[in-house]
Amino acid sequence: MKIAILPGDGIGPEIVAEAVKVLGALDLHFETETAPVGGAAYEAHGHPLPESTLKLAREADAILFGAVGDWKYDKLDRPLRPEQAILGLRKNLGLFANFRPAICYEQLVDASSLKPELIAGLDILIIRELTGDIYFGQPRGRRTAADGHFPGAEEAFDTMRYSRPEIERIAHVAFQAARKRSKKVTSVDKANVLETFQFWKDVVTEVHQEYPDVALEHMYVDNAAMQLVKAPKAFDVIVTGNMFGDILSDEASMLTGSIGMLPSASLNSRKQGLYEPSHGSAPDIAGKGVANPLATILSAAMLLRFSLDQEEAAQRIETAVQKVLAQGLRTPDIWSDGTTKVGTAQMGDAVVKALAG
Ligand code: IPM
Ligand code: MG
Predict the structure, then answer these.
(1) What amino acid positions are annotated as catalytic residues?
(2) Residue closest to 273 by CA, chosen among 58, 62, 49, 2
(3) What pLDDT, on the 0 to 100 scale, is given for residue 347?
(4) Which of 47, 95, 103, 326 is the most exposed place for a label (fewest CB within 10 A)?
(5) CA-to-CA distance for 93 and 86, rounded, in angstroms?
(6) Helix, strand, or coil here: 64?
(7) What gap in Å lies between CA 13 and CA 314, rounded to an integer?
(8) Contact present, 204 and 216 (Cβ < 8 Å)
(9) What is the DSSP string of 291-338?
(10) Is the CB of 86 under 6 A from ligand 1?
(11) pLDDT tens, residue by residue, 63-74
């Protein structure tokens, strides 16, 4: 088994180092190899996703990814920007199924901006389609408008599109995940306005016929955004397209108190996966040793579960994380009165220690 380690930019290297520390403490046998990605790769190789990094990612069974992006690269041409690295990995490896759990840990109920009773015990799973939709649809670009409100004016355009097989495979992923949970799926769309999402709704409804034991509801995305803050516990599995999933998963992350706690997995049909925290590169706190490594450590647990088939080791990590929270250790993003403030490395060390006993 081989794990590609892609730390990336900003806080990426710091938090990935802690996750690697935790993986190393498990005494499992796997090989690791590290490569630059994002802005770091642009600096080293002139491209955010160099051929050598892509090759390593393709060959690995799993990828542990930190984060990419920094304001200093915002002026680069789009193909050279750090974000293209993660989009390129998703596309090239066919990582179409993105799992973003939002779990509110008992000890962190007060860290959320929502009332405790709304989020205590929250455990939802957002399944975001990750290789289609307006993110990747062609054509896209800039041109002179031939029609519309201002013919002859300069305009920009993107294309929202989904094919039947793309919708079918993500719907299967969602229904199968729901079978292992409370057997309920909410499919989020904008069928009242968009052709693409009327088709989405139709295809999800068809696939649902194969899962009579799972309940399916449909919800428009604007309403879903509202329900997520009104009564988040009414959801279990949410399945949606790439764009809506991007937005709703950030919203859901805040229900739990801190985006610094949320892992994610992006899988292809061969169970090869990329595992990354749901948060970004946070260049403002990079290098200060204050970033929360728990989302990355929990992503490593998902890596063991989904790509390496090591359920027991995955649970050991998750239990260890619960333990350090119970001990009252908190990085600044989740700190509150009466708890102990720790830095990135201290938090990683505490998880390693909690693994042992
Ligand atoms: C995410 C991020 C990415 C996305 C960016 C960095 C391209 O926001 O993983 O949610 O939009 O998918
Ligand atoms: Mg996002």
Answers:
(1) 135, 190, 222, 246, 250
(2) 62
(3) 98
(4) 326
(5) 11
(6) strand
(7) 22
(8) yes
(9) S--HHHHHHHHHHHHHTS--HHHHHHHHHHHHHHHHTTEE-GGG--TT
(10) yes
(11) 999 999 999 999
